[in-house]
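As the work plan foresaw, our protein records have gained a structure token line. A representative record is set out beneath this paragraph:
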Amino acid sequence: MLFKDAFKTATRALTHSKTRTALTMLGIIIGIASVIILMAIGQSVQKMILGQVESIGSNLIIISPGAPSGGGFSPPASARGIVITSLQQKDIDALQREPSIKGVAAQVAGQAEAVYGGKNKTVSYQGVTKEFFSVRNMKLSKGRILSISDIDSASRVAVIGPELATALFGTNIDPINKNIRLKNITLRVIGVLDSSGGGIGGDQGNVVIIPISIAQKELLGVSYFNVIMAQADPSYEVSFVKARITSVIRQTHGITDPTKDDFSIQTQQDVLSLLGSITSILTLFLAAIASISLIVGGIGIMNIMLVAVTERTREIGLRKAVGATDKDILQQFLIESILITMIGGLIGIALGGAIVGLIYIVATTFFSVGWVFAFPISAVLLGVGVSTFSGLVFGIYPARQAGRKNPIDALRYE
């Protein structure tokens, strides 16, 4: 039998049993759509996170207290609950004299309850120095940032995150020049961060940013810094600036043995590399989970094709009686299986793409998240390849069972 004849026969068989064909395709459709949706979500999350980090600027260098714990990016000691007081004002002064550094900012952080009227919310607060906003590339939606005079005179003023502003003041009250309480001090709100001013460094939606002197003396009772951030001068390579910072701080700390460092330094590239690896693993994990449904769909195809072989036993016997060979019967049923999976794969790709687009529309329209649209071509190729492979692999056994039937026994089958 010629291939085109076998193809026509297989097509007629599928259209003759529309319900069975549709149910057979369903597993593949769901499996392919799931792979595309989950891989698209993984890539969207990856792009969104990396975009937020990159928005801070590629020339940001983060100096944390405590010795580095291995290669790449490691969390600061304060994030692991360890109090280390190695970063001091002398480090800021020395770094400000370094020509390869454009700006230096220091930060201390804590947690407290912010109160306005009868409303309260637990927030993180950050005490910062005067160059914090420029170094972190932070933008405001309204009001102004902390000025040099605010920092130097320890003014009781604050810039708050957008989510905190909504939680305390709602949408009808302008938070500018309103007073909030943080622990035992009253702060006047002078600015609200833009919703895109996130990046690394905690939840910037529920943050209170205040002069560092207020945070150190009145809230924390410390003289050291939790972190120092340096902005590399664009005319220098970030790697060179990182080396210069390392040298400067070793001098201020009197360190001659590099293995005795009491600080760690990470660049934006370190952070991006780590986050990229984590999100790539997450995407792969999601794709692996979704692929299970493809295997289930393939097994479903095999089961239904076996039922179809049984139901069409007399037809197989008749075909063999008029001259069809085992190979012809096997070819026909194998084509049916591949057609089912390929058509199901195409429908699954279309369905998955539609749902990915719907997720993007809903996320950007109804939620204040910087969702990034992603439709991975790799997922489409994976879907087409797996669906075709499933049809071939899971269709072979039923097709062979059909081809091996004895024509006389098949014609007698009731």
About this structure: The first strand starts at residue 60 and ends at 65. Residues 3-53+274-412 form one domain. The chain has a mean pLDDT of 80.
